[in-house]
Amino acid sequence: MGRMTASPGRRVLLAAPRGYCAGVDRAVIAVEKALEQYGAPVYVRHEIVHNKYVVQTLEKKGAIFVERTEEVPEGNIVMFSAHGVAPVVHEEAARGKLATIDATCPLVTKVHKEAVRFAKEDYDILLIGHEGHEEVIGTSGEAPDHITLVDGPEDVAKVEVRDPSKVVWLSQTTLSVDETMETVDALKNKFPGLISPPSDDICYATQNRQVAVKKLADDAQLVIVVGSKNSSNSIRMVEVALDAGAPAAHLVDFADEIDEAWLEGVTTVGLTSGASVPDVLVEGVLEWLAERGYGDVETVKTAEESITFSLPKELRRDLREEAAALVAERTGASKE
Fold first, then answer.
1. DSSP secondary structure of 248-296
2. Rounded CA gap, 29 and 60, in Å?
3. Residues with catalytic annotation?
4. N or C: less crowded end of the chain, CB within 10 Å?
5. The pTM is what?
6. R_g (Cα) of the chain, nearest Å
7. pLDDT given at position 177
8. Contact call for residues 24 and 47 (beta carbons, < 8 A)
């Protein structure tokens, strides 16, 4: 590591809050606790959170990430990611004689419950979100006959409902607040009776990080967002920075992905990270910038966060024993 210096006039504005939200922290700790308590392997359906470094670190500790429940050998433990899964996935795990740990973020679970409740009341549910995202797939699976996906304002024109007086909107938790409300406004113009969810679905951490990045964009000529390219909330932060007036904004997983050409003519760099990013990666970027004269770091604080979530209840049980019992039950049934 080279000598870190601060060149006159060069500085870094470091966003606070940034990085891990309560749901991500809970999910990552849940994998670590499961490995510690039950031993490897612990299978995880999809990436536990959307961050390359986190996934690679957990793989080294014995976690095995799979895309489909059927890939998990029977008698094993499978964990569901922070993004949540549809009810059919729980059914797949039961058929596969798997013990399960549900690490779905409680704020995503709230949206799932809202979908179930409104479906029971026979509402058409307009789910604002990005097609193919794990969270959207999970929420849609709670009430597939009632949910229509709306992937931004441009989708509104083609949306049809059975009864305009019984329509409600829900949203993916990791979207841009501004873009979501633009979509909601367009939907309300088309369906004046549109009902809003009991509370905002976009999570507190996503909102806080977007507010912070807007603040950075006021003064920085370059905004760097640390996060993975499959992280919806990280991608949104780059978009928010540009929409807020930052001349340039880029997403990187690691410091060595930064192009030095980005720094040409830049005196102030804004730095933040997505909700699934450990702070060690931000520290790496700070070191990289300091080596290039950006050693003066000023924290820009826009909110306090104190929310925590308890670990999944399944971690208080002997899941290896439960999985073995499920397999024994199947073996016994096949002998009868």
1. -EEEESSGGG--GGGGTT-SEEEEEE-TT--HHHHHHHHHHHHTTT--E
2. 15
3. 135
4. C
5. 0.89
6. 22
7. 85
8. no
The Cα 143–Cα 240 span in angstroms is 31
Distance CA 152, CA 146 (A): 19
- Which residue's structure tokens are 């094993």? 76
In the three-class reduction of DSSP (H, G, I as helix; E, B as strand; rest coil), residue 186 is classed as: helix
Structure tokens belonging to residue 298? 């000023």
pLDDT of 331 above 50: yes
- DSSP E strands in the chain: the ranges are 11-16, 42-45, 63-66, 77-80, 99-102, 124-128, 147-150, 167-171, 222-226, 249-252, 268-273, 296-301
- Strands 147-150, 124-128: pairing is parallel
List, in order, residues 6 or more apart from 112 with CB less than 8 Å away: 84, 104, 138, 139, 142
pLDDT, tens only, 187-227: 999 999 999 998 777 788 999 999 999 999 999 999 999 99
Write down the pLDDT at residue 3.
39
CA dihedral 57, 286, 207, 245 (to 10 degrees): -140
